[in-house]
């Protein structure tokens, strides 16, 4: 099949699950971009595929198929958007020769190392990887308290305590979120994701769990930005948690209005925290 000429009006999406890919498609089309989607089976919604101008379904690990499709469609720019269930790496991967060759070159099988390696390979093939917030800066988490409830003195201490612990696990590329209570770490996010971390830590807390989610030091805005939304607050409400503290301007928030309404109903504090240049926190 003949390869189309590369066209800067085309833009690719390497799509996982959730609403982020659909948000991007809508925004990109407002900018008169033709959207070409590589959708992952078992992750990407059919709604995302239906909204695309061209779509190719792949299994996790079919990297050569992804690159060939983008080249056929004339894609020179792409973004990584949406979630991939990380535990699938052990049970539901179908790597092709290109993916296997890349995998064998990666010493640390952690998020940043894997995604940077894929991005470098794509760029060596003439496909530039853009920041995932392209066209979607309005989805960045805002600073300040978003809810009617405001953090009290004890909750502020827990936010500060959780913040520096979360930053440290991020530095180690383990996760982006911790659950704390009374300046005690109850759960650390690893491969299972934020919601399961909240459930695990919240069960240990009994109630009043404080969830802190931050960017990793040196976070690459091209992929794996921290994200929260309505589902996060609903999960926190299930364990009678009290606070969701998220790094403002460095993470994404989905369904903001619905999230705040749910938090107000549950009496949960939601706050966007800013880390000042001197390392102190502006909690709101």
TrEMBL record:
InterPro entries in UniProt: LpxI, LpxI_C, LpxI_C_sf, LpxI_N
Domain of life: Bacteria
Residue span, LpxI N-terminal domain: 10-139
Pfam families: LpxI_C (PF06230), LpxI_N (PF17930)
Domain LpxI C-terminal: 142-271
PANTHER family in the cross-refs: BLL4848 PROTEIN, LPXI FAMILY PROTEIN
Designated name of the protein: UDP-2,3-diacylglucosamine pyrophosphatase LpxI
Native organism: Desulforhopalus singaporensis
């Amino acid at each position: 099949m003949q390869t189309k000429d590369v066209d800067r009006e085309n833009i690719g999406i390497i799509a996982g699950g959730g609403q982020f890919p659909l948000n991007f498609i809508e925004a990109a089309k407002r900018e008169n971009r033709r959207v070409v989607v590589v959708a992952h089976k078992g992750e990407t919604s059919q709604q995302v595929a239906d909204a695309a101008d061209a779509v190719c379904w792949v299994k996790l690990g079919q990297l050569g198929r992804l690159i060939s499709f983008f080249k056929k469609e004339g894609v020179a720019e792409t973004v990584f958007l949406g979630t991939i269930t990380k535990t699938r790496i052990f049970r539901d991967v179908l790597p092709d020769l290109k993916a296997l060759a890349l995998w064998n070159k990666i010493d640390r099988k952690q998020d940043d190392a894997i995604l940077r390696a894929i991005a470098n390979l794509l760029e060596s093939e003439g496909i530039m990887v853009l920041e995932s917030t392209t066209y979607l800066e309005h989805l960045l988490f805002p600073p300040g308290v978003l809810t009617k409830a405001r953090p009290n003195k004890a909750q502020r201490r827990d936010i500060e305590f959780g913040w520096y612990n979360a930053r440290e696990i991020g530095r180690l590329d383990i996760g982006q979120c911790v659950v704390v209570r009374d300046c005690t770490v109850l759960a650390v996010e690893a491969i299972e994701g934020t919601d399961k971390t909240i459930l695990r830590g919240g069960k240990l807390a009994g109630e009043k769990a404080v969830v802190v989610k931050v960017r990793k030091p040196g976070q690459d805005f091209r992929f794996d930005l921290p994200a929260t939304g309505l589902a996060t607050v609903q999960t926190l409400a299930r364990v009678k948690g009290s606070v969701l503290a998220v790094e403002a301007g460095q993470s994404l928030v989905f369904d903001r209005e619905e999230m705040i309404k749910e938090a107000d109903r549950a009496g949960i504090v939601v706050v966007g925290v800013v880390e000042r240049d001197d390392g102190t926190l502006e909690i709101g």
